[in-house]
């Protein structure tokens, strides 16, 4: 027989989880159309904001979705043995002007993993790299622990 | 930002914007805020006084 235990994560546990990870799946919505992409991010435990660098090209689907500060969800998850943990941040994603950054924010982006330019055929000057910030309206997390019966 | 003291041009992604002293120090420490490329003094130019 398999049993499971489910627990809501505390705010501090969510903060530690997001700070420890650096990749997740960002989902955007426009009208009835969904769009989801794997991204790398940086997380500020004090403000609970997520910082992203997103790369797009002129005719990319991503750029279409990012065009109007869309509603967004960021999902970060982990499987560790019999424990499954997921955190979901819900909010609006906003573009950030590099010239308006504080030194603290510059440092924050410095800790954000660089986009995987290697997978792009174009050089960096030909790519449109923009900074974004997700300040979540809702931040939740839970851990599910599965106890598997060896004799089953 | 206080009064800009330098213009930053990233050597890799070519993004450019004006920075003050504190932002300049942060870029040298953290790298290009847009693409993450390392930043050196030569990438930050002060305005030329005529």
Automatic annotation (TrEMBL), chain B:
Organism this protein belongs to: Halorubrum aquaticum
One Pfam family cited in the UniProt record for this chain: DUF7560
Protein name according to UniProt: Small CPxCG-related zinc finger protein
């Amino acid at each position: 027989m398999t049993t499971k235990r489910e627990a809501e994560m505390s705010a501090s546990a969510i903060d530690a989880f997001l700070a420890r990870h650096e990749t997740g799946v960002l989902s955007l919505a426009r009208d009835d159309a969904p769009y989801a992409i794997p991204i790398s991010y940086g997380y500020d435990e004090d403000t609970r904001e997520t910082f992203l660098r997103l790369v797009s090209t002129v005719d990319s689907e991503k750029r279409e979705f990012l065009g109007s500060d869309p509603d967004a969800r960021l999902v970060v998850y982990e499987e560790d043995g019999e424990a499954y943990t997921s955190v979901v941040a819900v909010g609006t994603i906003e573009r950030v002007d590099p010239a308006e950054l504080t030194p603290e924010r510059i440092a924050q982006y410095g800790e954000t993993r660089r986009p995987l330019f290697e997978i792009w055929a174009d050089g960096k000057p030909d790519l449109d790299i923009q900074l974004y910030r997700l300040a979540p309206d809702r931040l939740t997390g839970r851990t599910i622990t599965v106890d598997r019966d060896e004799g089953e | 930002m206080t009064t800009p003291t330098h213009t930053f041009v990233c050597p890799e992604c070519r993004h450019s914007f004006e920075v003050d002293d504190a932002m300049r120090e942060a870029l040298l420490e953290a790298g290009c805020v847009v693409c993450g490329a390392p930043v050196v003094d030569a990438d930050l130019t002060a305005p030329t006084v005529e």
